[in-house]
Each structure stands twice: as structure tokens, then as C-alpha cells.
Amino acid sequence: MPNLRRRFLIAALSLTALGLVRHAVADDGYRLWLRYDPIVDDTRREAVAAAVPVLVLTTPSGTESPTIEATRRELQEGFSGLVGRVPEVRVRVGAGVDEALGDEGYRLTSRGVADGGGIEIRGNGDVAVLYGAFALLRRAQTGEDLARLQVVDTPRVGRRLLNHWDNLNRFVERGYAGFSIWEWFNLPDFRNPRYRDYARACASIGLNGAVLTNVNADALVLTPYYLERVAALAEEFRPYGVRVYLTARFSAPKEIGGLDTADPLDPRVIAWWDEKVAEIYRWVPDFGGFVVKANSEGQPGPQDFGRNHADGANLFARALAPHGGIVMWRAFVYQPENEMDRVRQASFEFMPLDGAFLPNVSVQIKNGPLDFMPREPFHPLFGSLQHTSMTLELQITQEYLGHSTHLAFLAPMWKEVFEADTFARGPGSTVGKAIDGTLRGHPLTVVAGVSNIGTDRNWTGHPLAQANWYAFGRLAWDHTLEAETIAEEWSRMTFGSEPATVAALTDILVRSREIVVNYSNPYGLHHIQARGHHFGPGPWVTGGRPDWTAPYYHQASEFGIGANRGPEGSNALADYAPELAALWGDLERCPENLLLWFHHLPWDYVTKSGRTLWDAIALRYQQGVDEMRRLAADWAALEPAIDPEIFANVSARMGRQVNDAIHWRDACLLYFQQFSKRPLPEGVEPPAHSLEHYMSINLRYVPGHPGDY
Ligand code: BDP
Fold first, then answer.
1. Is 183 annotated in the active site?
2. Are 169 and 213 in contact (CB under 8 A)?
3. Which of 3, 580, 667, 684 could be a cystine partner for 622, CB 3.0 to 4.6 Å?
């Protein structure tokens, strides 16, 4: 296959040189950003070719490990694709450790002519060199000058993980791109080549771990039948530095261990987990550890036995510590019987336990206190937990942002989180610093992203959703990168370096998320998505658990709209630093994009624009629709520059997204109008249907919804 591919690329290169192909073969998107198509511009292609005749890989061992073999293969295939010539790759033993690089950082240095020219890729380990190789290829793909490279790059966070919400039956919870790529039934004998391409893609953006299974865990994955298969996957990923992790079901000692309890303080339970963990390490010597969702949304946990989260987490931590493993204990907890505002409950449960977790525990916290909304403020625990390592959990899959049907490039949203100031240790105490260890010196640092990939040929369903996988990896490595830089890199790597195309694509990506906010959840509105599958509007959703209904959050009535989270309301503001409580609590200073998250306001409240709240909300929904129409038009203008198959795919999704934006606007405005009892302001298009029509829509079998599966 590699040979075939090389031959094809060389053929394509010669055709390109003759000006004969632009899209000789339809592109199905499988190659992601690792396309390595010939650089079209002759001068640039020649310059890259001249810079890389020789590549020297320098590691302390200097051995031909599987990782070095993979590195050589990637460099040779990559450059032969890009420039039509295969570079010579030499491996060399480095003298001593390069202190600037840590375990995973790399150094790229252009070598003088006297040294034989070319580029040296240096690291303190083989995987670091692999990262350097991918970085070099990226620079070649994005048009950087390779002649005078002097680059040192190290990751800011130690564990950069994908979390797959994949069930053993291959259903992916909140997955919109097909089924799970883990073929448990065919493993361990048949190893789909996709596993290697998955690991390549992860390594190319610096990801170094994969949690294979859903947080709503199945104990069966801990049985020998599955562990043998987990070991096979680990073996496939190992050359690329991707370690495997699993989710642990708290009640496993009862379900598969024959015990009558899972009490974390019971000696039999402790012994069972110790032995289970030892068994896992016999299968997978570099196993990373567990993610545990406990006492959350019906999952079993330590509270079932009168114990707390620290008792539960430390049970696993003790079992894993001798083997070097860690446990990520999720803070996504809220109880139906608790009267307290749902967004406060994690702080309520975890703050008393600050300092009680063992050092190899990291409390895994979603970016916001509710649940991956199009916009929420950062989770208060990032500011308030002082003595606990914290994992930031982001959601790459777009559960509340239009699944893989809608375009929402998420880097701008994640940047808001990384850059949010918690004020925990004075101004500048950003969430980024809280999780990368610089704020409080925690050595265990983790960022996790809920994966958006599946068996779809292009991995992510929406072809442009590949950019979210890419952006997650890049930000997990270095959260100070700009969203726009990442969008531009991805566009160049994926669609080539033609300047006008790159500029247009970057712009489309960067605008997209705010547009989704505007047509679905403007002004800090939240949790008004349809019930269950969360696709489309559902501000009318009532019945069942109050904290799963929409009015619990929007509080719309004839008096106004919004959640009062100030001292007169749920006082969630008190979970933040006083500076923030003062800022967000003050109507004059609260950013308008969080207004209704923190305040309940009358319909005639006058917003900064001078318009009433009702008019402002209505016009913002309309703005979202208008912007979405422009986005689709801007995409349509790219037709000559984009591969026809991908162009058609995205165009169809964009057309649907425009209609869905209109649907969101009309449904929400008609619903809220029952309370505001005001006309739509001038400039807002009248809805096509009645409120009853929108409320009667009941989508079935929406992908990714566990309830319909
Ligand atoms: C919610 C999802 C649900 C997940 C849960 C979690 O709706 O499917 O199981 O989060 O993160 O967003 O545990």
C-alpha cells in the first residue's frame, strides 16, 4: 500500500508539473491533514526539496526502534509526496540529554553545508523525535522556510488524551461519524490498518493517550477476553507514543469479580482491584490508567456505600501507583434530589475533598459547570481547588452544537476557557495555568477531549470537523496557540496553500462557532436543546427530572427571562473569586454573552444597544441566521479550489445548517413570545410555522443518542 501510494503521488506530481491535474482523483478525506500532496508552487517545492536531502534523527539511544522506523517511514512518504524525492534518513546517538526538551519536546535545526546539510531532529526519546518529524512535515506543508530552522518546542501539558465514548457493541455515545473504530470482535487477529492511521494522526498533533471506552462504563472490558484485545490495540499504537487507558466501572468487583460489594474500603474490594490492575499491566505494560464516572447520572460509585469521591478515587490510585498509572476521577456530578442549582453541585461535593486525593489522581472537570453548552463560563473548580490536580475535559464531538451536521470550529471556544482568568492567585491566574501546573505546581497535568471520530470514511462525518480533532491536539500541546493560527495551519495542510483559499477557509472556521451561539443560545441562554439527542431547539422541554428540563435554565415567564445566579438567586456566583462575582454580578459590567446565565431580567430591560431585551434577543437570533447564510455563501465561493467530493459534502451540510438556523430562530422566538407578549422587531423575518408545529417535531433515531439505540 505505501508503495502504491508513493507511485500514485509521484504520478500526480508529474501531472501537476504539466498542469494537468487539480482534482485527478476525488478525495474522500481519509488522509486527514496528513495529505502530503505535491506542493504545487514550483519554487516552493524546490526550496523544500533542497532543505531536506538528509534528515538526521538524534536520540540518546540511537536505535532502530519501532518508533524510529515509523518516523523514517513518515518522513520518507511525506516528503516524497510533497516534493517527489525521498530524503535520506540517518539515525544518530545524541551526546547526553538536551535539557531544554524534557521528555517529549523536540529540536529542529538546519545543518550547515559543512555538516552535510539537511535538518537534524533531536529529542530525548524516540517519540519526541517522531513529534519533531511531524512538526517538520507540518512546516513543509504550511509553506515555512526550512532553510534556517532553529526550533525548540515542548508540550505544556503532560497527558494529552482523547476520550472515546465508545461502547463495546460499537455504539458511540454522542458519536455522529458512524460506529466505534475498535473492532472488538475481529481483534486481536485482524488489526484494521485504520488503527495505525489513527495513531499517526494522534501523534502528528501531539496526543499521547486514548481512553478507549465510554465513561458510562461496561465492566466487561476488564475481563481477559477484552484485555487481550486492548493489548492488541496498545501494540498498534505504541510506536506512535499513544498509550491506552480504560474506563473503570465502580461496581466491577460485583459484576465480574464475584464479590457482594464494591465498597472502596472493604479489604476484598481493595485486593480485587489490586489484582485486576496487576493483570491489566501484564497485558499492557505501559497502560495509562483509568477514567471513572461515579455517582453521576445513575452510575455506581463510592456514595452507594456511604463513602466519598476521595475514597473512591484513592482506591484506584493505590492500585495503579506501583505501576505508574493514574486515575482521572470525573467531577461531572449532580443529583436529581438535590435542590441546589445544578451548576453548583460539583463545587459542593468536591471542595470539601480538596487535598484528600492521592498524587496520582486528577479530578476531571468539564470546561463549564453545566455540560458542554455552546457557551458557558469556566467551571469554578478550576479556580477553587487548590491542592488537587485537575484534568480539563473538552468535548470535541458537538453534542450541543449541531452534531456533525453543523460546522462549529471549536478552537475559539476552547481558547475562551484556557484564557479565562480565575483570579485564584491574583489577576492572570488563567484556567490554562491552573491545568498546566504553572499556577499551583501540580506535576500531574492532563487535558482530555471527547472524541468526534467514528467509522465514517472521513473519520468525522462533517469534513471540516476534522479541524476540531486537529485543534484539540494542538491546544492540548500548547494552549497559548491562537485559534486563527490553528485554523490556518489546518486549512493549508488539508486544502493546500493557495493564499486566497487559505484566507477564506480560515475565516469561515473562525467565525463558525459564534454563529452557532447566535442562532441557538444567544445572550448566555443554555440547555434549551431538544430532549435526549440535543439536536435542534427544545426550550419547551418539561417533565421528568427538573434539571433535565429547559425552563429550569431559561426561567422564562411573563416577567422576564434568564437564570438568577446572584445572591438573590442560586448564588452560583459565590463559587467564583470575589473579583469575578463582582464583575458578573454587576449588570453594567457583566459581558452580554453571559447575561442570561447569571441574571433574570425583564423583557423591557434595556441592553447596551439601547434595545429592549426582547428585541435584542430576537435580533440576535436573526443575526445568527444572516451570518449563517453568509457563511454558506462564502463556502460556495470556494468551489473551484476544493475537491468536488468534499465540496459537495460540505455544501449540503451548510444548506441544511442554514435551514436549521432558521428553525432554531423561529422555534425559540415563538416559544419565548408567549411570555414576552411582544411583536417581533423590525428586521426579524416572520416564522414560517406555528409554535405547535415546532413543538410537535419528534426526531427519532438521531445518531449518538443512547436512548434511541
Ligand atoms: C452528557 C451526555 C451524556 C454523557 C455525560 C457525561 O449527554 O451522554 O454520558 O455528559 O459526560 O453531556 O458523563
1. no
2. no
3. 684
CATH code for the domain defined by 34-153:
3.30.379.10
pLDDT score for 25: 56
Query: 159-481 falls under which CATH superfamily?
Result: Glycosidases (3.20.20.80)
Question: Taken in order 570, 347, 704, 647, is the CA torsion positive or negative?
Answer: positive
Length of the chain: 709
Residue spans per domain, the chain: 1-30, 34-153, 159-481, 517-563+600-696
Read off the pLDDT of residues 230-265 as tens digits, 9 standing for 90 and up: 999 999 999 999 999 999 999 999 999 999 999 999
- CATH topology match: 34-153 vs 159-481: no
399 catalytic? Reply is yes
Residue 97 contacts residue 112 (beta carbons within 8 Å): no
Task: Flag whether pLDDT at 191 surpasses 70.
Answer: yes
Q: Which amino acid is at 652?
A: A
Q: Which ligand 1 atom sits nearest the alpha carbon of residue 706? A: 8
Q: What does pTM read for this prediction?
A: 0.96
CA–centroid distance for 282 within its chain: 31
* CA–centroid distance, residue 535 to ligand 1 (Å): 14
- For the question of residue 297 being annotated catalytic, the response is yes
pLDDT mean over 479-486:
98
Instruction: Report how far ligand 1's centroid is from the alpha carbon of 306 (Å).
Output: 24
- Model confidence over 431-462: pLDDT tens digits? 999 999 999 999 999 999 999 999 999 999 99
Instruction: Considering the domain delimited by 517-563+600-696, tell me its CATH architecture.
Output: Alpha-Beta Complex (3.90)
C-alpha cell at 665: 430562530
